[in-house]
Amino acid sequence: MLDKTIKEPPQRTCFVDIVQGVTRFAMKARLMQPATFDKQTLMDRAAQAAGSDDFGDPWFEKPLSVLLQSLEDEARLHEAGAWVAMKQCEKVLVDRLRAQQWFARHPEILARPLRHPVFIVGPMRSGTTRLHRLLSSDSRFDHMRSFETITPVPHPEFTHGGHDRRITLARRARKVANLANPHTLAIHPTGPMQPEEELGLFVNSFWGMKHEAQWHVPTYGRWCEQQDATPAYEQMARLLRLIGWSQQASSLKPWVLKTPQHMLDLDALQNVFPDARFIFTHRDPLRVVASSASLAWNQTCIYSDHADPHEVGREWLRKTRVQIERMQQGRRRVAPGRMIDVHYEAVDADWRAEVRRIYDFLDLDIERAWPAMEAYRESADALKRQPHKYSLAEFGLSEDAVLAQLGDYMDRFDVAPEPRAAAR
Known about the structure:
Layout: H1 14-28, H2 39-50, H3 61-73, H4 79-105, E1 118-121, H5 128-136, H6 146-150, H7 165-180, H8 184-187, H9 199-203, H10 209-214, H11 218-225, H12 230-247, E2 256-258, H13 261-264, H14 266-272, E3 277-282, H15 285-303, H16 309-330, E4 339-343, H17 344-349, H18 351-362, H19 370-383, H20 399-412
Parallel strand pairs: 1-2, 1-3, 3-4
Helix pairs in contact: 2-4, 3-11, 12-14, 15-16
């Protein structure tokens, strides 16, 4: 909800300050070692934990190196934030090693086809989650769940039909995230079994905007914008096959997928998924920029004592512009019959009509999907506890500044302005 009355961004909770205080004390008392961002050290630790040194395609080491350097030089993390960042990187490295172990034990995983996937592509906060979850409720599609994007790779002891410890881990992570930032559920309501985007599949290659939304790492972000992301998408496809295998899902069903990362990497996506179909979402850029900045701020301020909301605002205005430019370039390779445009306000006004239009595009009968979609709508209302409120002013931005950069996008895709809350 864009609200002009909001002038200052929300502050982090006292839980974060308590954790930071305890961490600082433990380090001074030499009960904990300071975080390290030395790549070889992290890789050696992961290899020891997983009992293997086969990380798969070594391409990931390039973005990992740039990310670690950016974390050290730019992110200005406090002691607890740095320690969490280090542990996150170690976890991802262990996941890569365990994925290779699964591929070696079950070579049939990599033979699974990924037929005619449907990608929902749009800027952050443009309604991609809503559409993704509506389509995911239809059993004719396969989809990822939240616990699978947090930990894409099953534990070595995983068995089909048995307890999956990743679900327990996801529940714990959700509780900690809510303690650190109670705005989380308002910004992106979710639960371990909820349909979720494939963000974690890119994190597995240390790739993508997830890192930029969590930490202030501008050098890393700009470096990624200049790279060919095809190897990251190839790893994503391998992990998607592993997840489908672990779900015992039919390989005949198409996946429905979404993440704003695709806005930047449409060429790489099409290199790996040449028969993909696309649903492009569009929304008033004043909302997109303000909501994206709010999402990034609510994460960045957890890990750093020096997070600057105006800096966050400038960066996500720039990033939104880059996303839109790259999306327009990438669409040139997409045949008209493989894509459809959907507007946020149209879904707001009549979601059933827009979903029917999408199903006509996909050549699917909509009638059998209605009951599950209605059930999803009811559960979504119960899941969302409070509206996400944000403004441009809290991030040092004005409507004129945003429209000066993104007004042409509104004209190109006939994006209507959404009502604004008047200042009181």
